[in-house]
Amino acid sequence: MKDLLLNVAEEIMRQKDYLTKLDAACGDGDFGVGMYIGFKNAKTSIKHYEEGNIGSLLEKVGYAILSSVGGASGPLFGTIFVEVGKVAKGKSEINLQHLATMFDMALQKVYQLGGTKVGDKTLVDALEPAVNVLKKASNEGLNLMEALKKATEAAEKGAEATKNLVARQGKARYLGEETLGHPDPGAVAIYLIFKAMLSAYQSCLSHKP
């Protein structure tokens, strides 16, 4: 789990300029820098974590983001990790059923915080389809690798689909039609998180004896 989360943090940090460019097109251009700072802070927390409690580790990641990222991004992305951590509290291992429940709880909290829904051109456009796929995969008895692949694909499609939407939430809503043709940076960040989780899990399995 530490390797998986480190990969997530490093991927978001690598994509700082790309996320900034996306936000400059339909926001105030500070999203990439904010996410870089938040996930850099999270990376430090991950490296220094020595306990065997997955939930506690995830919560630390969330609070590291919450404490260092301003605007709406910090509360939303920080809350996602805090909420998945609450579900995994006390666990030293998690399976697909756990993961589906973890992200579903995070999604419900995001709904409460932002009052958003699919179609508003926010991170929900990528997160909701990914969560739905995880829940479906869990019910169908798929393995974790298959589920993560499908969830990553769903998040990517959801993020890509935001190009064709007009922003209805956040600062971008003031730009109206000008946001057409540009993907939402928050939705793209959700896709990058799932992509990084999948990559780390694939790497982990390939190095298993």
Write the layout of secondary structure elements.
Blueprint: H1 2-14, H2 16-26, H3 31-48, H4 54-66, H5 73-87, H6 96-114, H7 124-140, H8 144-161, H9 185-206
Walkthrough of the structure:
It is built from nine helices and no strands. The chain has a single domain, classed as DhaL domain (Serine Threonine Protein Phosphatase 5, Tetratricopeptide repeat, Alpha Horseshoe), CATH 1.25.40.340. With 209 residues, it is mainly α. Helices cover 70% and strands 0% of the residues. The protein is globular.
Offer a quick outline of the entry.
The chain is mainly alpha-helical and 209 residues long.
CA(first)-CA(last) distance = 18 Å
CATH class label: Mainly Alpha
DSSP helical segment count: 9
- Let me know the average pLDDT: 90
Report the major sheet.
none
Name the CATH architecture.
Alpha Horseshoe
Anisotropy-based shape: globular
The CATH topology corresponds to: Serine Threonine Protein Phosphatase 5, Tetratricopeptide repeat
Q: What attributes characterize this protein structure?
A:
single chain, 209 residues, mainly alpha, Serine Threonine Protein Phosphatase 5, Tetratricopeptide repeat, 9 helices
